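Design request, tokens follow.
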């Protein structure tokens, strides 16, 4: 079956799907995106992703290409046409195509692309049972990591370093020695006295949809939550560490830079949170947080 992409109002086989050579997403990374999980053929936490997309667009003054409902329909239709049951949909909106000039061009319409694919979760499930390795890398990204732009070169370099070290993820460390987040995930630890710690929202991290959902689920479980920065030293002294993202769900991190976290095995809290997050995704995000409230800060 040939895969189908949505491009600016049309559903096209990949061979015919194309964007303009002067698209600003291509030339300036002047574009934002979302990756949404698909479970049972339906999107997980779709509203959260669309609210965050609108926030990213507004922050960069890229025109919203269509209403939230219309975008949700495009996503659902792209999933349907590609017969995705368990997988992801990728949505990208650029400022548009125009003659190359740094300042915003007048009168351009945003370019919208959506692609969807099935993903075999067997490998991720096996990794979650074993736990994964992380390495640390300096955070060399720009100052607005809260906006989900396609300017992902620093993240790609960090992920490549992780891959070459045989690790799953790179934890990015800011100039003051605090962990910001993973190259494509949010970073968490469980301290020796049982508190769940993750960096507060701000310009230094992406406000993950999975982070928000897990935060809310952990609160409902009665876990003690602390939104504050933590260092690598604190992470290595922690009982557990894990990452959250659309593609990893909740993934236990059992070593950092080759040193074990806790007893070196996947932790109980991460295991429990992964199980309840899976139930949350299977319900497509029922009982979700108030998404509008998740991204207004700061
Ligand atoms: N990455 N932080 C960064 C830098 C990310 O790129 C991502 C997601 C997250 C987690 O966000 P969410 O829970 O909304 O997926 C945190 C996506 C999956 C990607 O680039 O593929």
């Amino acid at each position: 079956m040939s895969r189908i992409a949505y491009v600016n109002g049309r559903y096209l086989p990949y061979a015919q799907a194309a964007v303009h050579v002067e698209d600003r997403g291509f030339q300036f990374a002047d574009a934002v995106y979302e990756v949404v999980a698909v479970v049972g053929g339906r999107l997980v936490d779709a509203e959260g992703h669309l609210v965050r997309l609108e926030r990213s667009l507004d922050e960069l003054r890229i025109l919203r290409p269509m209403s939230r409902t219309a975008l949700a329909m495009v996503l659902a239709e792209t999933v349907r046409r590609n017969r995705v049951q368990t997988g992801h949909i990728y949505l990208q909106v650029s400022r548009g195509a125009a003659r190359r000039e740094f300042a915003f061009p007048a009168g351009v319409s945003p370019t919208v692309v959506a692609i969807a694919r099935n993903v075999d979760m067997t490998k991720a499930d096996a990794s979650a049972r074993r736990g994964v390795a992380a390495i640390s890398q300096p955070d060399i990204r720009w100052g607005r990591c809260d906006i989900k732009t396609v300017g992902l070169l620093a993240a790609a370099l960090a992920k490549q370093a992780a891959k070459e070290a045989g690790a799953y993820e790179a934890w990015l460390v800011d100039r003051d020695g605090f962990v910001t987040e993973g190259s494509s995930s949010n970073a968490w630890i469980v301290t020796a006295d049982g508190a769940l710690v993750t960096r507060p929202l701000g310009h230094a991290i992406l406000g993950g949809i999975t982070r928000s959902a897990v935060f809310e689920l952990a609160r409902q479980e009665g876990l003690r939550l602390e939104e504050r920065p933590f260092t690598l030293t604190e992470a290595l002294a922690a009982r557990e560490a894990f990452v959250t993202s659309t593609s990893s769900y909740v993934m236990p991190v059992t070593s950092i830079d080759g040193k074990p976290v806790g007893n070196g095995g996947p932790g109980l809290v991460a295991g429990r949170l992964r199980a309840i997050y899976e139930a949350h995704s299977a319900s497509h995000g029922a009982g979700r947080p108030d998404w509008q409230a998740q991204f207004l800060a700061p």
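Comment from the thread starter after seeing the answer: thanks! The first helix runs from residue 24 to 28.
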